[in-house]
Amino acid sequence: MTSENTPDAGAGRSRAQVVIDGIRQMITSGELVAGSRLPVERELGTRLGVSRGPLREGVRALVILGILETRQGDGTYVTSLEPGQLFEPLGMLAELQSPENSVHLLGVRRVLEPEAAAHAALRISDEDLAEAARILDRGEALLAGDEIDLEGTIDVDTAFHRLIANASGNPAFAAIIEALVGRTARARLWRAIHQQGAVHSTQQEHRAILAALAAHDPDRARIRMQVHVLGVEEFTATDYPTAPVDETDAAGGATDAAASVEATVGPSVEAR
To answer: DSSP string spanning 7-47?
Structure first.
């Protein structure tokens, strides 16, 4: 007799994996579409040849992945299957990466973000250009005082990159970049604290990217973004510590710990 958790003899799969593969096939074949309600538990279990335990385990896994959602008292449904929802687990993967692997995440950004910027240069609206300018104005205002607000500068940086990703018109670009940009804030903050002059050079790079977007020049936008992201990647590759640092929370904003580091370093430190 086959246990619920033993591999399926025919395919070397667990019974829960049979459920995952079966529901995935129902979606890819078009039998189930975004918003569809799954068959009732007994019917689905019979169809997939599994009992209640592995059926529920497989459904829970697909809920975690953003493919299914359960509605209390109403059954289980296929989600909207939007990229932002499906790529959300990527953010968790990025958060779980060890500090020495931050450079790899930045390498992914360097591949994706220049192309997102090039796409955005062809599609960005006047409203988005105006909003991007306001974001950078806010960043410059944070540099006007004697002390630099690290949390604020990281927020500005994140908002600017998020806007460009969304303006690319490619939901997959936007979803992946959204998952990565906040999770690489530790490395960006470390650079902010330890590389003199980083904030002003970064602000200039942001302005150059914005000028390329405003000119609707995809080649310039791509190059400007590539240079911009490469700077923090190179610094991280050589200067980022291998031990965990707590300057940011999981969502990517600077915490009180970052503020205390800033106070130790002094007001001359410039943030990216």
So the answer is: PBTTTTB-HHHHHHHHHHHHHHTTSS-TTPBPPPHHHHHHH
Q: What would the CATH number be for the domain defined by 15-81?
A: 1.10.10.10
Name the 3-class secondary structure at 76. strand
Q: Are the C-beta atoms of residues 4 and 51 closer than 8 Å to each other?
A: yes
Rounded to the nearest 10°, the torsion over CA 258, 148, 113, 233 is: -60
| CB contact at 8 A, 102 and 108 | no
d(CA 52, CA 79): 22
Length of the chain: 272
Q: Has domain 86-265 been given CATH number 3.40.50.1970? A: no
Neighbours of 270 (CB within 10 A): 21
Q: How far, in Å, CA of 186 to CA of 160, rounded? A: 17
Which H helix or E strand runs over 78?
strand 75-78
* 262/205 Cα distance (integer angstroms): 23
Domain boundaries, the chain: 15-81, 86-265
d(CA 224, CA 121): 12
pLDDT in tens, 124-149: 999 999 999 999 999 988 887 667 78
For residue range 207-263, list pLDDT tens digits in order.
999 999 999 999 999 999 999 999 878 877 776 655 444 443 433 333 343 343 333
Contact call for residues 112 and 176 (beta carbons, < 8 A): yes
